[in-house]
């Protein structure tokens, strides 16, 4: 049984009767059991996955209508609610939280007969970019287990890259889908803000975050987008995409498209191997008929500062509900007055979430808001104007997904500012609401490098088309596991 097939290949194989959902899912669960001790992608594994697959096989055999996923095994980031499942956000605060309802993306995938093989690891409450801030220990990069897999959707990327599932869903607030996709050599896609419902995604910074797929191929991301996008009465930020088919025309190329190379994302601090991969990607795109030219986005230099100010503020408010009264129930209120009780309860948060909570209390507070929060919003607006201007001249923008290579576990954990700066190339898409995708492109010393493309709002179809064209020019080595 070949576990390395893409989602679309899986569907074809099941349709042709070459494999059964039960066999494939059983093999996938076996792979998780065999390999996950080394990688720690999973926080929980679904014990009834094989039984569910057997039911789908029965449906197929009896000629009943089967959903488009045909029992495809998918892993789910641990901040997406699956009814009856423990959903911890990789936090001790939600150690015993069982989701009372399904996220909209989960409902949609259930309707299409996807099988959720397990919940995957992440940085606590999606704050981080290495998965080291999980309260349950870090995930490891399958390309070299001494290295971080990226984050915060690290478990998603690891599970796809190590064949522990066919595809995964993560969330991307400032790069959390694209960053681990780049570090683990998978495709990672952050759609236009509003294209996918966030109902049932445990909020971190809801004004900018989106759920996104991590897959083996660009076509697989387009396929999943077809299934999970669209308007949702439970999330009033969703947009009506008219049931767009993101797979149709995906292979029509990019002849004549204008691509802007973001100057500020290939400058200071970039690893030489990442820079040369970017140049190679640009020359491949030119060979495909695109016209590439440098473009300057001046506000990018303030984007990380603005991003962390805005997200800390939203997180401060979103995470106020975790007070051990509404969630937790770990110790009795007996003997505490309000402040000492809350401060004890909040000690359940790990160091990174605590840091953001302190920042999130301070930056929007009276007397400081003008200096920090409001200024950050101004940067966000100016950056959006700049990017909108750029899209008057260009169809797409390009930059490396991450300016540096994956680094060793523990290497940056004590230096939060140096970690924050790693997000420099990903936060722009979130602050401006634009779609962006990371495509596996190259390797240096056995470590993956991803290339990022961005498009204007609602140009997801064009973005996927360009990503597909670039992907076709790449042949990469297999993961050494
Ligand atoms: N590294 C960023 C942060 O810690 C991005 C996280 C994300 O996209 N969820 O906020």
User: What is the approximate shape?
Assistant: globular
List low-pLDDT spans: none
Label the CATH architecture: Alpha-Beta Complex
Strand content is: 5-15%
Q: What small ligands are held by the chains?
A: glutamine
CATH superfamily: Amidase signature (AS) domain
Distance between the termini: 16 Å
- DSSP strand count: 11
Strand order of the largest sheet: 1-3-2-4-6-5-10-11-9-7-8
CATH class: Alpha Beta
Tally of helical runs: 15
Largest sheet: 11 strands, mixed
Helix percent band: 25-40%
Order of helices and strands: HHEHEHEHEHEEHEHEHHHHEHHEEH
Evaluate the radius of gyration: 21 Å
What is the total domain count? Answer: 1
Task: Indicate the structural class.
Answer: alpha/beta
Task: Kindly report the average pLDDT value.
Answer: 97
CATH fold-level topology: Amidase signature (AS) enzymes
Q: What features would you describe in this structure?
A:
With 481 residues, the chain is an alpha/beta fold. It has helices spanning 7-15, 21-39, 49-61, 104-111, 154-161, 178-184, 218-228, 272-287, 300-318, 338-346, 351-362, 373-393, 416-421, 427-432, 460-471; strands spanning 42-45, 73-77, 115-120, 167-172, 187-190, 210-215, 258-262, 291-295, 396-400, 436-444, 447-455. It has one domain (1-481): Alpha-Beta Complex (Amidase signature (AS) enzymes), CATH 3.90.1300.10. Helix content is 37%, strand content 13%. An eleven-stranded mixed beta sheet has the order 1-3-2-4-6-5-10-11-9-7-8, with helices on both faces. β10 and β11 form a beta hairpin. The radius of gyration is 21 Å and the shape is globular. Glutamine (GLN) binds next to loops.
């Amino acid at each position: 049984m070949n576990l390395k097939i893409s989602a679309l290949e899986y569907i074809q194989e099941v349709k042709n009767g070459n494999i059964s959902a039960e066999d494939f899912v059983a093999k996938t669960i076996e792979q998780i059991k065999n390999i996950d001790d080394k990688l720690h992608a999973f926080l929980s594994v679904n014990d009834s996955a094989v039984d569910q697959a057997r039911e789908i096989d029965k449906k197929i055999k009896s000629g009943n209508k089967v959903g488009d996923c045909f029992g495809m095994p998918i892993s789910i980031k641990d901040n997406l609610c699956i009814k009856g499942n423990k959903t911890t956000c990789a936090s001790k605060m939600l150690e015993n939280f069982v989701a009372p309802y399904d996220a909209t993306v989960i409902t949609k995938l259930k309707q299409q007969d996807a099988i959720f093989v397990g919940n995957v690891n992440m940085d606590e409450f999606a704050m981080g970019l290495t998965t080291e801030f999980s309260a349950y220990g870090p995930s490891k990069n399958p390309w070299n287990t001494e290295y971080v897999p990226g984050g915060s959707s690290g478990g998603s990327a690891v599970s796809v890259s190590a064949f522990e599932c066919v595809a995964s869903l993560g969330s991307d607030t400032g790069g959390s889908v694209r960053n681990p996709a780049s570090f683990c050599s998978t495709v990672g896609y952050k759609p236009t803000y509003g294209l996918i419902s966030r109902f049932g995604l445990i909020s971190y910074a809801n004004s900018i975050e989106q759920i996104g797929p991590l897959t083996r191929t660009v076509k697989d991301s387009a396929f999943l987008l077809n299934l999970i996008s669209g308007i949702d009465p439970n999330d009033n930020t969703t947009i009506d995409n008219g049931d767009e088919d993101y797979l149709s025309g995906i292979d029509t190329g990019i002849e004549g498209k204008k691509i802007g190379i973001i100057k500020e994302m290939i400058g200071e601090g970039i690893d030489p191997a990442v820079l040369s991969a970017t140049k190679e990607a640009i020359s491949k795109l030119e060979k495909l008929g695109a016209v590439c030219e440098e473009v300057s986005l001046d506000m990018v230099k303030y984007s990380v500062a603005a991003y962390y100010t805005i997200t800390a503020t939203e997180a401060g408010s979103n995470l106020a509900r975790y007070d051990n009264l509404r969630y937790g129930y770990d110790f009795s209120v007996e003997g505490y007055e309000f402040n000492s009780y809350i401060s004890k309860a909040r000690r359940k948060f790990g160091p990174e979430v605590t840091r953001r909570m302190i920042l999130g209390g301070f930056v929007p507070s009276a007397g400081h808001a003008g200096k920090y929060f409001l200024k950050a919003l101004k940067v966000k607006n100016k950056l959006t104007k700049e990017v909108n201007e750029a899209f008057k001249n260009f169809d797409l923008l390009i930059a490396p997904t991450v300016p540096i290579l994956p680094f060793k576990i523990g290497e940056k954990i004590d230096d939060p500012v140096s970690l924050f700066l790693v997000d420099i190339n990903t936060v722009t898409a979130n602050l401006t609401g634009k779609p962006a995708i990371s495509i596996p492109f190259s390797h240096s010393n056995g470590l993956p490098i991803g290339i990022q493309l961005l498009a204007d709002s609602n140009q997801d179809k064009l973005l996927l088309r360009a990503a597909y064209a670039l992907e076709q020019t790449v042949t990469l080595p297999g993961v050494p596991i």
